[in-house]
Design goal:
With 135 residues, the chain is mostly helical. The chain has one domain (14-131): Hemerythrin-like (Four Helix Bundle (Hemerythrin (Met), subunit A)). Helix content is 76%, strand content 0%. The chain has helices at 15-36, 40-68, 74-96, 103-131. α1 runs antiparallel to α4. 21% of the residues are buried.
């Protein structure tokens, strides 16, 4: 059972970005499933590595898209990405240092941040990009 399901209310109406967001949902759900099976600690490192790599790729794509189209709130948007990346890298560092299980706080952070960021910050650029012919 998934923790968070993709639904139309998450769409930013830019196909490639929606597809990338769906991949982030998959990573969160993979962590959730592992925790429910008592394997949260076992897969946390793998998911963290994939998450750090994937978010950097996704954010770079999204930022390039916003910057190249002259999105007026680009700097603030990038700032949110930078804070998120820093937090995930911190979780990764704690994991590598053998800190106590991070699966639950990591999953909670990811779910809350992703849903709030997509439905809030990301959806603010939707009509701007669509107006520039990006869909």
């Amino acid at each position: 059972m998934a923790l968070i399901n993709w639904e139309n209310s998450y769409s930013v109406k830019v196909k490639n970005v929606d597809t990338q967001h769906q991949k982030l949902f998959t990573l969160i759900n993979d962590l959730y499933d592992a925790m429910n099976q008592g394997k949260g600690r076992d897969v946390t490192g793998k998911i963290l590595d994939e998450l750090v790599t994937y978010t950097k790729t996704h954010f770079a794509y999204e930022e390039q898209l916003l910057k190249s189209n002259g999105y007026p709130a680009f700097a603030a948007h990038k700032g949110e990405h930078d804070l998120f990346t820093g937090k995930v890298v911190d979780f990764q560092k704690q994991y590598q240092e053998g800190k106590a299980s991070l699966a639950l706080p990591l999953m909670t952070f990811l779910k809350d941040w992703l849903t709030n960021h997509i439905r809030g910050t990301d959806q603010k650029y939707s009509s701007f990009l669509n107006g520039k012919g990006v869909s």
